[in-house]
Amino acid sequence: MYIEEAKNNVGKEVTIKGWIYNTRSSGKIIFLLIRDGTGIIQSVVSKNDVPEEIFQKAKKLTQESSVIVKGIIREDKRAPGGYELLLKDLEIIQITKDYPITPKEHGVGFLMEHRHLWLRSKRQWAILRIRHRIEKSLRDFFDNRGFTLVDAPILTPNACEGSTTLFETDYFGKPAFLSQSGQLYMEAAAMAFGKVYCFGPTFRAEKSKTRRHLMEFWMLEPEIAYITFEENMKIQEEMITYVVQEVLKNCQNELSIIGRDTTVLEKVKPPFPKISYKEALEILEKHGKHLEWGDDFGGDEETILAAQFDKPVFVHNFPTGAKAFYMKPDPDNPGTVLAADLLAPEGYGEIIGGSQRIDDYDLLLKRLKENGLSEEDYKWYLDLRKYGSVPHGGFGIGLERTVAWIAKLPHVRETIPFPRLLEKIYP
Ligand code: 4AD
Ligand code: MG
Asked: What is the pTM of this model?
């Protein structure tokens, strides 16, 4: 039996295969907290109820020793989780000596060095289960709406999000880059499948040591033929609402382990507020932050903007120069592009970047050149504007920033099993 199935096994004798999370003893009774990956259950070893040999074996158990136990499940309101195992038999697989992570407080540096073991801790377990639920609900959202999952390549010859943050590799004597975004390939796929998404790791050599930046992060990127800019934001709203609802529905235990106050999450329902970049500058000015037209927002600016609202907020119509080459100019607002970032509440900043794409061949060519990109490298991308070009758009949602917000974590390093940070790639 897995521990998560305890409630369906009350009164039955079961076998649990797992590890010792903690032990406590009061003379004639030993309490073992046993974890098996699905949960933690308290197991009671009573001197009066088990053979002496079993009691002596239980006494030897240490934190993270691996064990197979047999016993009877019973309901007990006082036990953590509400159920307990009355131990009958115990097989020791390995006695662990000197497990480095003890129940006392450790520094983050130490824990990061031991990330391979830290994953076993209750809080890390809860966070990564929430991550899994977010990944699953994101995929379900698109699968249920008839999107086709199309995998984008990781090794690429082109830059998508600017050439300054590329990881270069040697591709048989020629440079190739780790993908910053699957978007350009999704644009090709959208013309073949109508509505598509990719979901994979992306890489940015960003020299940023912040609580929001990873060198390797996961991004889900939908791309839709014939979509309008307004429709693009609407689907983002519905997606975020769905994901938050799914986490609230399925992760109550995990949310309570990490102590997440869910009242803010319960407010996440459409419509989300929308402000233009121009309005954003005015809000920032009022809060003592002066930005020139064209300046990009940093973490501080995003935090101020998001703090004005209790729901995620769209910032749209950025100045052309502040954004990527492929974004479509807004005919109604010269000098700006049809791009929107979604900022999460509670100081988490940008979790989604999206836009309408340039669908005109000549304009795209002009923008490529203005951005110092070579026509030759982007020949295939230009082809998409030559053969049945249509209005289209999409967005990219950063998984780790979304997890950080939903779980309200102080840093993205806890949102991914093995974070790749500036100057840190171990373990
Ligand atoms: O805004 P970005 O750069 O957009 C794109 O890459 C587009 N090509 C997406 C598209 O339209 N298909 O990145 C999208 C999101 C950000 O909003 C953020 O959540 C996340 O990716 N992100 C990062 N997350 C962690 N660490 C980093 N270094 C990140 N850079 C971007
Ligand atoms: Mg962005």
From this structure: 0.97
- The structural architecture, per CATH, of the domain 115-414 is 2-Layer Sandwich (3.30)
Tell me the percentage of the chain whose pLDDT exceeds 70: 100
Q: By three-state DSSP, how is residue 220 classified?
A: strand
- For ligand 2, a single-atom ion, the residues with CB < 5 A are 353
Condensed to tens digits (0 to 9), the pLDDT of residues 52-63 reads 999 999 999 999
* Whether residue 214 has its Cβ less than 6 Å from ligand 1: yes
Given the candidates 3.10.300.10, 2.40.50.140, 1.20.1440.230, 3.40.50.150, the CATH classification of the domain at 3-94 is 2.40.50.140
Q: pLDDT band for position 72 (50/70/90)?
A: very high
Say how many Å lie between the CA of residue 396 and the centre of ligand 1: 6
Categorize the per-residue pLDDT at 208 as very low, low, confident or very high, splitting at 50, 70 and 90. confident
CA separation (Å) from 57 to 5, 34, 60, 101, 330?
Answer: 26, 15, 5, 23, 73
- Distance (Å) from CA 341 to ligand 2 centroid: 6
Q: Per-residue pLDDT tens for 85-111? A: 999 999 999 999 999 999 889 999 999
For the Cβ of 396 lying below 6 angstroms from any atom of ligand 1, the answer is yes
Q: Would you kindly state where each structural domain of the chain is located, as residue ranges?
A: 3-94, 115-414
3-class secondary structure per residue, 69-116: EEEEEEECCCCCCCEEEEEEEEEEEECCCCCCCCCCCCCHHHHHHCHH
* Residue 351 Cβ < 6 Å to ligand 1: yes
Q: Which ligand is nearest to the CA of 190?
A: 1
Give 77 Cα–ligand 2 centroid separation in angstroms. Answer: 48
Rounded distance from Cα 116 to ligand 2 centre (Å): 31
CA of 355 to the centre of ligand 2 (A): 10
Average pLDDT, the chain: 96
Q: What single letter denotes the amino acid at residue 178?
A: L
**Which atom of ligand 1 is least distant from the CA of 402?**
19
